[in-house]
Write a structure and sequence with these properties.
The structure is a homodimer. By secondary structure, chain A is an alpha+beta fold. Chain A has two domains: about 15-120, no CATH class; about 160-290, Nucleoside Triphosphate Pyrophosphohydrolase, CATH 3.90.79. Chain A is built from seven helices and 15 strands. In chain A, strands 10, 11, 12, 13, 14 and 15 form a six-stranded mixed β-sheet that branches. In chain A, a hairpin with a 4-residue loop joins strand 7 and strand 8 (about 140-145). In chain A, helix 6 crosses helix 7. The longest helix of chain A is centred in the middle third of the chain and has 18 residues, at about 105-120. The two termini of chain A are about 10 Å apart. Chains A and B meet through helix 4, helix 5 and strand 13 of A and helix 4, helix 5 and strand 13 of B.
């Protein structure tokens, strides 16, 4: 799958070498620099449905600015919101409508910026000693201000496995309680300390559906900015169809035939279920599977 | 690659359903429970070279205990060290010698426990408000004790891409300044917010070696407990051989022929370089590549 999934493939050059160079970074923070306009964590769109950019003069005087990188020779920044506003979850129809209007490159730029400023807004203190932290390296680090601690903290990326399970040509899909009616999707879960991707896939499927899987293969990955996941899409095989559903995690899980998946992916009202939306890696996993 | 890499494939059942059940968890914390013996973050080995286990009576009375899971029907715990001791890096010959003595399952158990207790030791405070946090869900969460905050925090896993780059049958390998003399390995770097695995591979190779890559494929993954990485091993192709080395990251990087890689992997003193050690995912990437 060479075509990037939603939120991947940002055209901004992260210009990593500039982050650690305070003089160069300061020189870039002039009237030519661009500031991504955000409403809290949400994007601000122009009438044409593109991201709105302002100048650094639009930022609050004492706000934290993160250096997103260079685009067309211009330094791009985003402002950390002064207060962490409410939910960081994706369940916001207005946000989804705005994101649907963006072209793939802009969606990736927005998603990466959102994850980063959200992390700063929630990490103003040192987890090691409780003192205040300050932004460092253009926003790719925070450092504890307590001279006895000085711990460095880095933006978080949480790997999540999301996986198709196949048995005799059928696919296992499940319904989380928060899903809209009739939506089924691939089972998923966070990779835990001490696990490989393959370990995490096997554990999650056993926990949620009571199924032993084998032959786990990687299919595709996607950054998911709610708040900062790395979705790792996989495929696996099961030798048995019996399910033991963990009802604290899933309302339902069942096997679907190829014909059922095919019909669901057309968006037909007659389909056995509603497929995951196109921006989700699960959608691409189902499409990939149908193309096999 | 179905054989698990070092630190992967722990035989302990993580028994996720018990974590969120305080009564059941409390009932498991009796004289039958096993406590993994640790010296700070390092393993304590029996004369036979196996992990030493004690009972919960061996823990300090007020220490935090994390629930590792169930092994042979017994609940397994590890104690969070009272103080965070010095470096969390792997560069400790005594530690490597101890780990080399462990069988693969025990090494995975130790690695996962180390990452988890180390995270607790460095996260006693809330990054959102600076208040104290307390251990929750058997150690798979910490919760802020400030009633106005109550933020939940989860153990961290940092995805890292590590990648072979191939050009006309040769492989690009590099030397980090901290490597032992003559050691070369695959280039690597953390996945950042807003990146897919494929994005991160392409960016790292461009940053460190100035090379454009295409056709990134996943090969294998491995948890790496220094302190808590998920190593994601990949392969990619380059169309051009010209290198522009980032000398702040690498002392050197160059192309090696298949014959040079083959000889290095035998451990020969005549080899052009010293290959990465067997417990590293880079070793397995080279082995996988030679088998292609």
């Amino acid at each position: 799958m060479s075509r990037p999934l939603a939120f991947a493939g940002s055209p901004i050059d992260r210009a990593d070498h500039i982050r650690a160079d305070p003089d160069r970074l300061a020189a870039l923070m002039d009237w030519r620099a661009r500031l991504l306009k955000l409403d809290g964590l949400d994007p601000v769109l122009s009438p044409e449905g593109t991201l709105e950019w302002g100048t650094l003069a639009d930022a609050a005087p004492d706000s934290d600015l993160v250096f997103l990188g260079l685009a067309a020779g211009k330094a791009c920044f985003a402002e950390v919101p002064a207060r962490q506003g409410g939910s960081t979850g994706p369940a916001n129809p207005r946000l989804w409508a705005a994101m649907a209007a963006l072209d793939p490159g802009e969606l990736a730029t927005y998603g990466g910026a959102r994850s980063l400023v959200d992390w700063h807004a929630r990490h103003r203190f040192c987890a090691q000693c409780g003192s205040a932290t300050r932004l460092a390296k253009g926003g790719w680090q925070r450092t504890c201000t307590n001279d006895d601690c000085k711990a460095d903290h880095f933006p978080r990326v949480d790997p999540v496995t999301i996986m198709l399970v196949e048995h005799q040509g059928n696919l296992l899909l499940g319904r989380q309680p928060r899903f809209p009616p009739r939506r089924f999707s691939a089972l998923a879960g966070f990779v835990e300390p001490g696990e490989s991707i393959e370990d995490a896939v096997a554990r999650e499927i056993m926990e949620e559906a009571g199924v032993v899987v084998r032959d786990v293969t990687y299919v595709a990955s996607q950054p998911w900015p709610f708040p900062s996941s790395l979705m790792i899409g996989c495929h696996s095989h099961a030798d048995r169809a019996e399910l033991t559903i963990d009802t604290t995690e899933l309302d339902e899980a069942r096997w679907f035939t190829r014909a059922e998946v095919e019909l669901a992916m057309t968006g037909s009202e007659d389909a056995a279920f509603i497929a995951p939306p196109p921006h989700a890696v699960a959608h691409h996993l189902l499409k990939w599977w149908l193309e096999q």
